[in-house]
TrEMBL record, chains A, B:
<protein>
    <recommendedName>
        <fullName>Protein-arginine deiminase</fullName>
        <ecNumber>3.5.3.15</ecNumber>
    </recommendedName>
</protein>
<dbReference type="GO" id="GO:0005509">
    <property type="term" value="F:calcium ion binding"/>
</dbReference>
<dbReference type="GO" id="GO:0004668">
    <property type="term" value="F:protein-arginine deiminase activity"/>
</dbReference>
<dbReference type="InterPro" id="IPR013733">
    <property type="entry name" value="Prot_Arg_deaminase_cen_dom"/>
</dbReference>
<dbReference type="GO" id="GO:0005634">
    <property type="term" value="C:nucleus"/>
</dbReference>
<keyword id="KW-0963">Cytoplasm</keyword>
<dbReference type="InterPro" id="IPR004303">
    <property type="entry name" value="PAD"/>
</dbReference>
<keyword id="KW-0106">Calcium</keyword>
<feature type="domain" description="Protein-arginine deiminase C-terminal">
    <location>
        <begin position="293"/>
        <end position="673"/>
    </location>
</feature>
<dbReference type="GO" id="GO:0005737">
    <property type="term" value="C:cytoplasm"/>
</dbReference>
<comment type="function">
    <text>Catalyzes the deimination of arginine residues of proteins.</text>
</comment>
<dbReference type="Pfam" id="PF08527">
    <property type="entry name" value="PAD_M"/>
</dbReference>
<keyword id="KW-0378">Hydrolase</keyword>
<dbReference type="InterPro" id="IPR013732">
    <property type="entry name" value="PAD_N"/>
</dbReference>
<dbReference type="InterPro" id="IPR008972">
    <property type="entry name" value="Cupredoxin"/>
</dbReference>
<dbReference type="InterPro" id="IPR013530">
    <property type="entry name" value="PAD_C"/>
</dbReference>
<dbReference type="Pfam" id="PF03068">
    <property type="entry name" value="PAD"/>
</dbReference>
Length: 676, 676
């Protein structure tokens, strides 16, 4: 019994008291006993249980018990009362000679009160889970889950639902966690008693609570109430404006449904946990605050935003249509159709010429036992595509979240081509069943250089379930991790391979061509606006070689970090033959761009890969780079499709991956089952 | 070996490489091997160790090893080099017929680098503790400790040392954590290599690093360098302005001392942990960032601010002198002298008539293996005593911290009579060896009412080691927990008793007096400006009785919380006979004040208690309230001294405790040994 309450009892008076089933009342018997009392006895109706502390020495059943300085009578009741004051207890006090000195009488009313949530995470609000007041990670964990209500039920004049303080559509209730107040007792509470729900000031920034106006029904299923769409009226109970509010006591055996709405994601200053309390208040007197005599508490955790790696099943592919990307679009259309997924084209009125679909947004999702939906993270990049996530994606069961850089400079590293996620990995025994987020930054040692904004990094770290790994991407002109790495599914080993761009692998391939007599084969063959260059010329360019040695060392640095932080062996990594070149920016460091289409910047749709067509030197009519890619990847059961993105993407310093985005199936693994 | 680095090696070239002892270099042999290489062999000087992955099949010692796609040569060195490039390794490549195709040569220089802190918490900076990069609580824990440098070495124009960005006195070094950079190797690093120390942007808000300009000496003792006061020049290395800076490599076997200064206490947005990194940078080329090829990391935790309960040994007592408190001051002077402690009197020029020494400040301390000093927490109350903590207490080895309410109203609940701490307790098996902080607030269910400011509450919770308990104190007009509770030492049970004001105990005592024929004995006997009132009159006052029933219920509510949160039994609590009365404020709730001097508001100096003189009814010439207090407390070995605070404190709604403060001996228990 966790609830224990001290009760004052005056003799020669009848004290009326409300007792919550499951709690105890402690009466210090000596405190208000008649003077010179030496003994006492207790009588009660069968509905009342009591014991005496310290337990009295053996006495005959009926003889009075000696009263000591610290005699405490502990009273409890097992069942709710049907009527007010239907249970009684009396204490009789005796003097030295067992003469009766006085009698204290208690009239008791018992109620059952339980504030309930889905603490065992099965989608059903169980009754009075003993662990409901705390939160624990893992398959043997407990504690309810809450979603940030970041989708928009409205499609006209829409905004994320949590930005409005009322419920206008019943469908919105599905995005909230049901909380049930279960009560049992007489038709009404004794005069002046009331129930109050309350939250702390800190938690009120992150949560809002509504309730149903109509009485609940005796049914454990959430869905029952949800689909009874007659319920149109949901008063706001708790918010940052109202931290405490009375809630009705319905009488008899009753349930009242509450709906808990998350307002913000975990972040630097918010660990995601919130508590909601329900107290029974006792009236004291005019101009005196009512005393909470019983408090029940539930704890919920706001679901984190979760990213989806390339190894998860695609659902939809997004690309932009521009005035100049017909060839690319055609290639993508064919690939997506062949793969059997849905292609969404963002048209020019919306993209305003901004083709970098990967960079403006990242698809993720939020998940709970009762609801799950995709949530787009909108980048602070804010190019001409900036309205797309809000205008086109936000909607019913499609959430939206963004972070705005206040006093920080936004750089190219804030584009989400620089935000990826690994497949599930295990690192030195530590499991990451949802993978790890990967971002690109400057060297931690750099005294200058570009970085991902602090607001976005703090958001990503605070989600906790895909602990981020920071790579060095500032060596690239554009500065995105997707320019040198990607993950592809594989049926063996860890279920995937890490593909890394490798100038060394590129040079090895070109030297092989030269050695086999193809030194005069031409790079960029067939591209009419591009100057062609022979294998021999490439291999003779010592500056290009030294630039690529540098690039290889940058990628190797990242390779070492990835091996360590993702627990990878060399056999989990495949080097892709890709050359880079350095370009000097005005007054800045030299930075790298791909020398020919950067094949690692691919789109991964199940086993189908959409790879930038490299336009490499041809051997017997076949592009040697394409042939090498196929030979490296087809052994894993992957199918390579080369997409011509040369004019409309590669020349603008991006490729297939930069120009597309994929919404994927969420993980089967539930984030709350993580061992943290 | 946690550090593993991929190294590019070109054949037909000599590669010069710097290798850190304890790390590994991985050479992907196939990557840049001559075309059609099929075998390889490795030779090296005795200073170099290598192995091959995957391990080659058994071959004769001298015959070349087959080269596979993923052959990796793993190189390491056990000892620092004396000279640059004094170690060599070569790889020879062979064709199908074991014909030599090429040879890659490595010239190696080994250095030892270790950034060290006192990770085992013994006051000495040990060498390369394997756990130095993480932090763990408990007696088997690890991780270094950092103090907020919040004292002031200067006494003239003083301010907390962490508010200035330079070290002007050698004594200030004692307040910082020593960090040692230990290096061993050739006289200088190869051309272009350098060492850089760096911290993250987030950590830079909380920490500053200085170094000594003169080379260190080969000595493990912190004190050696500290007291060599010749060292006068300590350049700033890292701060919020400079996140990364080169540090000198001294050559040979060398140590350089760094001094780490904490800038802020743990708070809502700061968990107290910070990391400092030391990287070795490799030059790459002009206009290219240097690559960190090795990074060593240490982690430190900022020491929390710790309060001292009444059970700890007093060191100094503080009171105010005012124009009207001679009687009180005299009583205190006698008590403190008798107890053998130091009395500090804050004079009128400083207190400007504000006598509430308890309310303006709270004494605490910060502790680390290398340094410990008292720190005063200055309340946002800011009465006329407001300059006292800064002006009179802040000084060498006396720290100062405050919290300022920005957008919050400061109320009487922000006075530190409303901030106390329990002695060490164990609650359901969970140990609190530093006790638990106790604060007073409004009921969590209250829709109005006063509270302690959020900034102070967040500060207190963030210290973590004395997890706070919130009581209900808003029922009192002044609203401080010290008006109804205190702790006194006891040699039995849990080492202390909780004393609670109890109107029920008061009434019981008065009824006993009446019963024994002393109904006409007078309260306030001997006070010439006070209307006297008989025991009979008090007992006949039904309104007073009902007010006190309410007060008892408020205290009982707190009693239940204290029992639960401190793991107390009824036998750990003693009820003190104290009556209250309710006063109505304009347009507000009725709130309580003590009816006669509130004896629980006492000063505890070891076994000597300074108790407000109650001026109770006399029986046989002796005050019955004093007699009862003595009988309740002397059995515990405590000595009661009653101090007349009636006119100058009680009438102004405070008592002895409100008008005094005690700085106490810190705990023997070290906070980092807590199991969290």
């Amino acid at each position: 019994m966790s609830h224990s309450r001290t009760l004052r009892v005056d003799y020669e008076k009848t004290t009326r008291v409300l007792c919550v089933v499951g709690s105890e009342l402690n009466v210090n018997l000596n405190r208000t006993a008649p003077l010179s009392s030496r003994f006492f006895s207790v009588k009660c109706t069968s509905s009342v249980q009591y014991r005496i502390n310290p337990p009295p020495q053996e006495t005959s059943h009926l003889s009075p018990i000696p009263l000591s300085d610290n005699s405490v009578l502990v009273i409890s009741m097992k069942h709710a009362s049907q009527y007010e004051n239907d249970s009684k207890l009396s204490v009789q006090y005796y003097g030295e000679k067992k003469d009766v000195l006085g009698r204290a009488v208690l009239h008791l009313t018992a109620v059952e009160i339980s504030l309930d949530v889905d603490a065992d995470r099965d989608g059903i609000v169980e009754h009075n889970n003993p662990d409901k007041g705390s939160w624990k990670w893992g398959p043997d964990g407990h504690g309810a889950i809450l979603l940030v209500n970041c989708d928009s039920e409205r499609t006209y004049l829409k905004k994320p639902d949590h930005e409005q303080t009322s419920i206008t559509r019943v469908s919105d209730l599905k995005d909230m966690s049901v909380m049930v107040l279960r009560t049992k007792g007489p038709a009404k509470l004794p005069e002046g008693y009331k129930l109050t729900m309350h939250i702390s000031q800190g938690d009120a920034e992150s949560v809002r609570v509504f309730r149903t106006r109509s009485p609940g029904v005796m049914n454990n299923s959430i869905s029952y109430t949800l689909f009874n769409a007659f319920v149109r009226d949901f008063p706001l109970v708790l918010s940052s404006e109202v931290l405490s509010q009375e809630v009705p006591y319905l009488g008899g055996e009753a349930e009242m449904n509450f709906y808990v709405e998350g307002l913000r994601f975990p972040d630097r200053d918010f660990d995601g946990l919130i508590s909601i309390n329900l107290s029974l208040l006792e009236p004291i007197g005019e101009a005196l605050p009512e005393t909470p005599i019983f408090t029940d508490k539930v704890m919920l955790r706001v679901a984190p935003w979760i990213m989806t790696p390339n190894t998860l099943q695609p659902l939809e592919v997004f690309v932009c249509s521009t005035s100049d990307n017909y060839t690319f679009l055609n290639g993508m259309r064919n690939l997506v159709a062949k793969s059997g997924y849905k292609l969404n084209i963002c048209h020019e009125y919306m993209n305003r010429g901004d083709r970098w679909m990967q960079d403006e947004l990242e698809f993720g999702y939020i998940d709970s036992p009762h609801q799950r939906f995709p949530v787009v993270l909108d980048s602070p990049r804010d190019g001409k595509l900036q309205n797309f996530p809000y205008e086109e994606l936000l909607g019913p069961n499609f959430g939206y979240v963004t972070r705005t850089a206040e006093n920080e400079e936004v750089s190219s590293l804030d584009s989400f081509g620089n935000l990826e996620v690994s497949p599930p990995v295990t690192v030195n025994g530590k499991k990451y069943p949802l993978g790890r987020i990967i971002i690109g930054v400057a060297f931690p040692t750099a005294t200058k250089g570009r970085n991902m904004t602090k607001v976005v990094q703090e958001f990503l770290f605070a989600q906790k379930v895909q602990e981020p790994v920071a790579l060095f991407s500032d060596w690239l002109l554009v500065g995105h991790v997707d320019e040198f790495m990607t993950f592809v599914p594989a049926s063996d080993r860890k279920g995937f391979r890490l593909l890394l761009a490798s100038p060394d692998a590129g040079y090895k391939l070109f030297r092989g061509l030269q050695n086999d007599g193809h030194g005069q084969a031409k790079m960029f063959d067939g591209l009419k606006d591009e100057e062609q260059i022979t294998v021999d010329e490439i291999l003779n360019d010592e500056i290009l070689q030294s630039h690529n040695n540098y690039v290889q060392s940058c990628i190797d640095w990242n390779r070492d970090v990835l091996k360590r932080e993702l627990g990878l062996d060399d056999d989990d990594i495949i080097d892709m033959p890709i050359l880079f070149k350095l370009v000097e920016e005005m007054g800045s460091e030299s930075r790298a761009v791909a020398y020919y289409p950067d094949m690692v910047n691919m789109i991964v749709l199940g086993k189908n890969l959409g790879i930038p067509k490299p336009f490499g030197p041809k051997v017997n009519g076949r592009c040697a780079l394409e042939a090498e890619m196929c030979s490296l990847l087809e052994g894993l059961g992957l199918r390579c499709t080369f997409i011509d993105d040369f004019a409309s993407y590669h020349k603008l310093l991006g490729e297939v991956h930069c120009g597309s985005n994929v919404r994927r199936q969420p993980f089967d693994f539930k984030w709350w089952n993580l061992e943290m």
